[in-house]
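call fold(seq) -> C-alpha cells
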Amino acid sequence: MKRIVFIIAILLFSVSVFAQTSYSTKNKKAIKHYELGIDAMQKFEYEDAEKYFNNAIVYDPKFVEPYIMLGTMYEEMKNYTAAIKYYQQSLALDEDFFPNTFLIVGRLQLKLGLYEDAKINFAKLAARSDTKIGIKSQAEQAVLQCDFAIDQIAHPKPFDFESMGPAINTEHSEYSPALTADESMIIFTRLIPSDVSAGRMQEDFFYSKKVGSAWTQAIPMGNTLNSPDNEGAHSISPDGQTFYFTACNREGGKGSCDIYMSKPYKGGWDYPTNLKILNSTKWDSQPSIGPDGRTIYFTSARDGDMDIYVSYFGDNGRWSTPVLLPSNINTDRSEMSPFIHPDGQTLYFTSDGHLGMGGFDIFISRKIGDNQWSDPVNIGYPINSHRDEAFLFVSASGETAYFASDIKGNSGMDIYTFPLYEDARPVAVTYLKGVVRDKEDREPLEASFELYELETGELITAATADENGSFLLCIPTDKDYGLSVSHKGYLFYSENFSLSGNHSKIDPVTKNIDLQPISNTGTVVLKNIFFDTDKYELKSESFVELNKLYELMKSNTSLKIEIGGHTDNTGSKEHNRVLSENRAKAVYTYLTEKGIAATRMSFKGYGDSQPIDTNATEEGRANNRRTEFKVIAQ
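ret:
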C-alpha cells in the first residue's frame, strides 16, 4: 500500500505540476535522463534513479524538476537531510516553480527539530499572494507550531531519565510498559525473532517482578496470551487481576485488530476473551482500564480517523456501545495511546492534531464531568521532541513515569523511567494491600472490593482478591471514601478513609482482612454510617453502606439482625443511651422503608456501656462512637 501511494504521488507530481509536456529546460539530453529517472523511481530502482537525475542536472544545472524528484526520493528513503538539500536547491533555482515545496521542506525540518529553519519556510509560503487558502492555513498553523516548539525548548521541563536495566531491556526492542499500582510487576511488549518464520519478527508479552529494589529477569507471559502472531498495546488493572490487550488477525476476530481480556488462572493467565462490543470491523487497539474496572478507554479507526473512545461496564454485565471522547480531545487528525491513571480522572494520550513539537506528542487532560475533559496540555519538552512520543505510563503515586524510546540512538527501543514534574502529575494515589481470609479457619478468600466516594456515592475503584486472597486496592487522595469487602456467604467488612484536603502522596497501608461467615455469632461495625454531633439523622454519606446492608439482607432472606448504637463516655449515661438508640432506630427505619421486614430486625441503644477502645483519646472515642449489627438468626 505504501508503495502504491508513493507511485501515485510521483505520477500526480509529474502530471499536475510539470504536465509531462513542458519542462523548465529545453535540453533534450537532460529531459531524457530525467524521464529515465522517473521510470526507475516508479520501479523503486533508487540507485538508477539517482544516477539519471544527477545526469539530468549535469546536462542542465538549472533544470528544476530533477532536484525536486531527488528530494522526493530521499524523503521516501527517510534520508531527510539529503531530501531537504535537494528541495532547497530547487527553490533557490526558482521558488515560483512549485511554491508548495516550502511546505514540504518545512515539514521535513520539523522531523529533524530544525524549528527556526522550518518557520522561515512556512512563513514564506504563508506570505505569498498566490498560495491557496487551504495550503496557506496549513503554513500559518505550522508557524504557530514552530513558535510553540521554540518556546518549549527555551523553557524545558525537568527530564532526568534512566534505563530500566538489563533485566528488562535487551538487544531487541521493548516498549508499552504497564505496571501494577504497587509497581511490583511490569508487563511490556518485546519484539523478538519469530519461532515459526525465519527472518520475521513478532511481538510478545514479557513480565518482570520487583524483588527489593531490583527487577527479576523478564520472562514471557505464556502461550495462553502469546502466539506466533503479534500481541501488544495492553493495560493491566491496578490490582493486577485483569489484563486487556490487542491482537490482530486472530481466528474469530471482528476487525483487523481487536481488544481482548484475560484473568489469572492457576498461576498463569486464562485464555483471552474477545470483547466484541468494543471492537469494530476496523482497527481497535490500545485499551486502558480505569480503576473502577468498569470504564475502558481505547483507540479506534472505525470512523476513519484514529480517535479515542470510552465504554462503561453496566449492571447488565456488558460493556456499553463505545462513544467518542469530546472534540477538545479528538481532532481531525490522530489521537492514540490513551492511559487513564488510577486516580480515574487524569488522562494521558498521544496526538498529532494538537499544538506540539512535531509528529506525535504526549498530552494531559483532566476529567471535569461526565465525559467532559479539560483542554489538553502538551506535557512539554524534552519529554516531547521532534520525534514521535507515545505510550506514557504514570505510577499510582504520580511521581514516576515510564516510557519507551530510542532516545540513545540504538536503532531499537528501550524502556526508561523518570521523575514526573509536578504540574503534569495526576492526583496522588495510595493503596491498601493485604490478604482476605476466613475469620475462623484462616483460609484465603477471593473477595470483591469496592471503594466509593462518600459524598457522591460514585464507585471509584474496584478490585478482586486472587485465589490466594491477596489484594491491592487503589485509593486516590483528596476525597473521603468508604470501602466494602464482600464474599458470598460472608458478612461484609467496611472501612473508611478520610483524605479530604490531602493532595500529596501518603504511605500505602498493609492490612489483612478477616471476613466472618454468616452465623449466629457474627458482628459487623458499620464504619461508614455517619451522624452530626449529638444528632441521629442519617447523613447522606451513609447511604452507600446502608445499601450494602440492605443487599445483604435481601440476598439472605432468613437472616435476622440486631442493630446496635454506641457512644463514647461524653455526656450522661441516659443521654448516651437515648442518642445511641435513636441512631440505631434510624438505620432500622431506613431498611424497613427499603422493604426489609421489621420482623427480621431489632434495634437497641447501648450508650457508652460497651466500649471497644479507650475513651482517653479522641481516636479512641471516635472508635467507640459506632453503629453495628449482629446476627441473631440465620
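The first strand starts at residue 162 and ends at 163.
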